[in-house]
Amino acid sequence: MIENPSAATLQAPLSERKPELRAQGGEAPVIEVEGLRKTYQTALGDLNLFDGLNLRVEAGEMVAIVGQSGAGKSTLLHILGALDAPSAGAVYCVGTNVTALSVREASFFRNREIGYVWQFHYLLPEFTAQENVALPLLARGVKKQEALAVAANWLKEVGLEDRGIHRPGELSGGEQQRIALARALVNHPRLLLADEPTGDLDGITAGRVFDLLKRLHQSHGLTSILVTHNLELAARCTRALRLEGGRLTAMETVPQMGPTLGGI
Question: Which are the contacts of 52, defined by CB distance < 8 A and separation ≥ 6?
Answer without folding.
Answer: 35, 36, 37, 246, 247
